[in-house]
Design a protein that fits this description.
The chain is built from seven helices and no strands. With 195 residues, the chain is mostly helical.
C-alpha cells in the first residue's frame, strides 16, 4: 500500500519543481498589490492624489508594476452603468487610467467610443425596460382574466408576479448587457495596449 501525502507535502513538492522566483517576479509580487491598493484608494477618495503617489516611485523599477496593478483595478471598474454609482465609478476609473497613460490623444479616442457606447447602452436599457414592462403588464392582464374565470378562490399571486417580473427582467437585462459588454471589453483591451 502506497504512502499518502499530505496537502502540505504536495504543495512543497510543487514549489520545489517551480524553483525560486526571480528578482523580477519578486518585484511583481511586491508592487502589483501596491498599485492595486493605490487605485482602490483613488476610486474611493475623491481628493487622493494618485499622480503624487506614482511620482514617489519614479526612477525605481517598481513603478511599472505599480502602474500595472493600478491599471488592473481601474479596468475592472469600467462597467456598464446600471445606476448613478456605476457611472461615477466608471468615470473615476477612466480618470485614473488617464493618469497612468502617456498617449492621452489615443486614449481620448477610445474614451469617446466608450462614452458613446455607454450612452447608447443607457438609452437601450431604458427603452428595453419600458417595452418589457408594457409586454409584462399585457400578459398579466390576460392571466388575471383567465384566473378570475377559472378560480373563484382568493389566491395571493402578487408575490409570485413580482418574482416572475424580476426574474424575467433580469434575464432580459442580462441579454442586453451581453451585447454591449463584448464591445466594452474590446475597448478595454485597446486601452491596455496604449503606452
Amino acid at each position: 500500500m502506497s504512502e499518502m501525502k499530505s496537502a502540505w507535502e504536495k504543495a512543497l513538492e510543487k514549489a520545489e519543481k517551480l524553483g525560486k522566483p526571480s528578482a523580477e517576479e519578486l518585484k511583481q509580487l511586491e508592487y502589483i498589490p501596491t498599485g492595486n491598493m493605490l487605485a482602490a484608494k483613488f476610486l474611493q477618495e475623491e481628493k487622493f492624489d494618485l499622480d503624487a503617489e506614482l511620482t514617489k516611485y519614479k526612477g525605481s523599477g517598481a513603478r511599472q508594476y505599480i502602474i500595472q496593478g493600478a491599471q488592473e483595478i481601474f479596468m475592472r471598474n469600467i462597467s456598464l452603468p446600471h445606476n448613478e454609482q456605476d457611472k461615477k465609478v466608471t468615470s473615476r476609473a477612466m480618470a485614473g487610467i488617464k493618469l497612468l497613460k502617456e498617449n492621452k490623444k489615443q486614449l481620448d479616442v477610445i474614451y469617446d467610443r466608450i462614452n458613446n457606447l455607454l450612452s447608447y447602452y443607457e438609452q437601450a436599457r431604458q427603452q428595453t425596460f419600458a417595452q418589457f414592462k408594457k409586454n409584462f403588464e399585457t400578459k398579466l392582464q390576460e392571466a388575471s382574466k383567465t384566473l378570475q374565470q377559472s378560480a373563484g378562490a382568493g389566491v395571493n399571486i402578487e408575490a409570485q408576479i413580482q418574482q416572475q417580473f424580476q426574474d424575467e427582467w433580469r434575464r432580459t437585462g442580462n441579454e442586453l448587457d451581453a451585447q454591449y459588454q463584448k464591445t466594452l471589453e474590446e475597448h478595454k483591451q485597446q486601452i491596455i495596449k496604449i503606452a
